[in-house]
Amino acid sequence: MTLTLHDGKEVKLSSLQGKQVLVYFYPKDDTPGCTVQAKGLRDGWADLHGAGLEVYGVSTQDAQSHQAFIQKYELPFPLVVDADGAVARAFHVPLRNDVATRQSFLIGKDGKIKQVWLEVDPKEHAAAILAAAKS
């Protein structure tokens, strides 16, 4: 699967084998819960990145919206443009009114899904991710 990032670059998930990868889906840029979640990951970035974790946020907003969200909150990780919902569907993430539900997937170094969060608490998400990445 190829992810198109907010800056137009593309990343193949298969090229990340050997690294742990968090792919997290969120409803919309710059909304209350999504902002809390993104800021939590930003604030925990040193620990997450130090644990060797790559982070990709995914929503159905366009690149311009993602770039504004990244700049406003100084997010250190890329956001994936999933305007047609194809990435969400590939991960079996439900779309409601063309908006992804909040779910996260931790992919292990072997390229297999290590853990799934179907219910995400935006405030506690970064700590849960870090604990899972270290296990």
TrEMBL record:
Source superkingdom: Bacteria
Domain Thioredoxin: 1-135
Catalytic activities: a hydroperoxide + [thioredoxin]-dithiol = an alcohol + [thioredoxin]-disulfide + H2O
Cited CDD domains: PRX_BCP
Keywords for the protein's UniProt record, in alphabetical order: Antioxidant, Disulfide bond, Oxidoreductase, Peroxidase, Redox-active center
Keyword Signal: no
UniProt-listed PROSITE patterns: THIOREDOXIN_2
GO molecular function terms listed in the Swiss-Prot or TrEMBL record: thioredoxin peroxidase activity
Protein name (record): thioredoxin-dependent peroxiredoxin
Organism: Sorangium cellulosum
